[in-house]
Amino acid sequence: MPEQVQDRPEWAALVEHQQQMSRQGLRQLFAEDPDRASALTLQHDGVLVDLSKNLVTTRTIELLVALAEAAGVLGRRDAMFAGEHINTTEDRAVLHVALRAARGTTITVDGADVVEPVHEVLDRMRAFSDRVRSGDWTGHTGRRIRNVVNIGIGGSDLGPAMAYEALRAFSDRELHVAFVSNVDGADLDEALRGLDPAETLFIVCSKTFATVETLTNARGARDWLQAAFGDDSATAKHFVAVSTNAEKVREFGIDADNMFGFWDWVGGRYSFDSAVGLSLMVAIGPDRFGDLLAGFRSVDEHFRDAPLAENVPALMGLIELWYRSFWGAQSQAVLPYSQYLARFPAYLQQLEMESNGKRVDREGRPVGTDTGQVVWGEPGTNGQHAFYQLIHQGTSMIPCDFLGFLEPVDEPPTTGVDLLQHHALLMANLFAQTEALAFGKTESEVREGGVAADLAPHRTFPGDRPTTTILAKALTPYVLGQLVALYEHKVFTMGAVWGINSFDQWGVELGKVLATRISTELGTDGELDHDSATNAMIQRFRSGSLD
Ligand code: F6P
Asked: Is 181 near ligand 1, meaning CB less than 6 Å away?
């Protein structure tokens, strides 16, 4: 059995180094090294990542890189790109990188090239999107499609929903695009209100086509259409499916011609650049979808080829791991200074928490260190007026990623809003927050400002709250692809160091099984044999009374 990472000498070296680092603050580190900002700022293809406001030195980076090397991160990375079955508990390759590989390149899984099939599906998606966008694809009554509703959950929702929000300025503003995920009927009901069935297209998105929430919502949508048209003859023109499971798609009543496939080597949370992104492609058009894929590819190639010490996503992952495993951080905040990226933290929650929320290593042994942590966040500046208090003055360290852009999205406003003026204010806040978090304000500085002694502790900012700042020129499809790929490979790197399988998600199963059983029980008055608390809740639901 391979040695566990916390038993390696490289780990012990970092434990010792952390003790030294905990005695130095960012004020001292910046004062001692005038080149610190540039030495700890990385750039790749128009994306800048400033690591300098982290509790690290170049020595920390060296030690983290040594740990990653000892843990075999490079071998894992190469195995992923080579199509090996690195998702061992499901015996699958992990090849989201093949989804954005250039046409003509070759990546093989079990002896067969997967890049050409990826492009065949992209071609079909392109043709379909063009037809919907041009009005050539019409509904059952011959009317143009004006509403597109994606029905999916988890990876079959969060990715396209996040990216649609992010790239709204690049979308066809005449098309109404909505995302329905929750089995709470309110989600579907609210989404359908006011829509004309004759102009509405549903994209049912599910890797397995077995997810209860998605199938329940898809049936609800089908019933809504049938109620409008009197029979199910409209299904063919108003439903398409995205799935790996052709048989179940057919069973649902969707024609194979209207199905867009993908493959078991694409994990749900790594899938929105596959056919799962169909709703996004319809919204922004195939060319911009192509730009998105090119952005992903740029970072994939960098992750695949760059040495660890210069590898941007790998270093981002190692720094997050530094706080999680060596400083005891419990959560990581992601704070985009862009309203368009409002759903980015929610997207990253699934990416990171479903991937690295694991308590045993690849060999099934309990891991000897903390692994995945809570990822959360909201766009700035909103969060500043809500939860930043705790980040500045709370008792826990919360490392933060700040994301920002030099320019606002280049779409002429139709309202007269002065986007440039707003943008300068937005970015001033981003820069101010990272400065305040890093350097704080000492009690004596507070006192010097005239604050009374009894108030001074309340108005003191301890500083040394670590942040990483990620900047790009503007939010475009290409840049969004880069950002997502940076986080995908960051998550990969952390999982590889910890020695866990970042690509399964067995932790979602138990609740699903119990929910299936309980949903049957809710409709009967049969005997219950759960624990007493669960039994009591089921009884209350059955009786409709809290007594
Ligand atoms: O329950 C978790 C999960 O399996 C996710 O990993 C996945 O993204 C989501 O459900 C949806 O699955 P599907 O695309 O098969 O409907």
From this structure: no
Question: Rounded CA gap, 427 and 466, in Å?
Answer: 18
Residue 156 CA: which ligand 1 atom is closest? 14
d(CA 357, CA 204) in angstroms, rounded, equals 28
Name the one residue in this structure whose structure tokens are 């400002």: 449
Residue 441 annotated to the active site: no
For the stretch 382-409, pLDDT in tens is 999 999 999 999 999 999 999 999 999 9
Q: Which two tokens stand for residue 329?
A: 């951080």
512 CA: nearest ligand 1 atom = 1
Instruction: Tell me the sheet residues that pair with 178.
Output: 149
- Work out which ligand 1 atom sits closest to the CA atom of 158: 8
Q: Are 504 and 90 in contact (CB under 8 A)?
A: yes
Q: Is 512 a catalytic residue?
A: yes
Asked if the model's pLDDT at residue 333 lies above 90, the reply is yes
* Best probe residue, ligand 1, of 150, 156, 274 (max atoms within 8 Å of C-beta): 156
Identified catalytic residue from 385, 458, 509, 527: 385
* Residue 457 burial (CB count, 10 A): 11
Check pocket membership of 313 for ligand 1, CB cut-off 6 A. Answer: no
Cα dihedral 372, 476, 94, 71 in deg (nearest 10): -50
Collect all residues with Cβ–Cβ distance below 8 Å to 265 and sequence separation of at least 6: 83, 92, 93, 94, 95, 98, 109, 114
In the prediction, which pLDDT does 530 show? 97
Task: Check pocket membership of 216 for ligand 1, CB cut-off 6 A.
Answer: no
- At position 250, the amino acid (one-letter code) is R
User: Which of 201, 191, 203, 204 minimizes the C-alpha distance to 238?
Assistant: 201
